[in-house]
Amino acid sequence: xxxxxxxxxxxxxxxxxxxxxxxxxxxxxxxxxxxxxxxxxxxxxxxxxxxxxxxxxxxxxxxxxxxxxxxxxxxxxxxxxxxxxxxxxxxxxxxxxxxxxxxxxxxxxxxxxxxxxxxxxxxxxxxxxxxxxxxxxxxxxxxxxxxxxxxxxxxxxxxxxxxxxxxxxxxxxxxxxxxxxxxxxxxxxxxxxxxxxxxxxxxxxxxxxxxxxxxxxxxxxxxxxxxxxxxxxxxxxxxxxxxxxxxxxxxxxxxxxxxxxxxxxxxxxxxxxxxxxxxxxxxxxxxxxxxxxxxxxxxxxxxxxxxxxxxxxxxxxxxxxxxxxxxxxxxxxxxxxxxxxxxxxxxxxxxxxxxxxxxxxxxxxxxxxxxxxxxxxxxxxxxxxxxxxxxxxxxxxxxxxxxxxxxxxxxxxxxxxxxxxxxxxxx
Length: 427
Known about the structure:
Arc Repressor Mutant, subunit A; 5-stranded parallel beta sheet; about 50% helix; globular; Orc1-like AAA ATPase domain-containing protein; P-loop_NTPase
């Protein structure tokens, strides 16, 4: 238990911002200290246990598979994917986790050639549990680059001598290298694909004990564009999983890709598993008590000594409602309240201030057309718009301003609570 209010605030702030600054705890420690099994209820407020279903699909499939995990940014996909890596049978599988943002700028469109090179380099960089000497993997990566006639500029390397880091820097910062990759792909797409797949086949063949890799490729859902228009980035992601789907099925392994909630790959026939927000309200606007209690437990796990009321007092339910059932938004609200200087617990006025600030940030970003879509969602509790408005609607989903609640007889949509208040004012 923290002795002073300041020590309590500091400890709580660090617990809800574990992925900022220096990593103070390992992923395993975070899991043991903070994880709440929100998917334990078969038809609970968070939906079914998708990790268990993905693990079963992997176990039931011979040879390899490709699965997509979609959802809102901040809905807890990464946490669940890391749980998948932990819970796989270690005697049968080798989990390899890759954060694709390490290799690409999510503000720019994705191209399939660079993406495949990034997958190969990312696999090498994150394959610690495979039991293959790192040097051997690096040599295979260098051989792939040589066969494709790709040259990494040494000046772009963060760490000369580490080929995976060289490629990481080149893909993020070196347009000349990306142009080489595009040219290699366009000159002979079949050869390019064959070389990449042979690289993965060789790596799989060297797995000790015949274990099968499960390659988790996270954070593709973060691609929504700022430097490039949203439509251009969205189209590049959808094209990757529509036009180039066969290239993303890597031989001899299971691959799980995260994709944005807005992505609807044409003709995709593999499973798409949706991770959505926790239901904190019913369709009639009343509280979903089960969902609120689950998120309360999430905060209690992170509060020093489990004392959540020391910070929020009687405002716990209000803060959880205001998050819309999204983990990221909930932690943002709590973090902002922890930075206040007043006495604890925080006052209703301080919660007002934080909510007003977050509303203002949302209002600045919305166009007139998007306000109209939000109004339609509020009235119909569905997201059904004319074709011309589809890009605007998908952008609202990517921002988390339109939320989907998948429990009950049929999925229904709602407007994020803080944005909905602004919508009422505009009406």
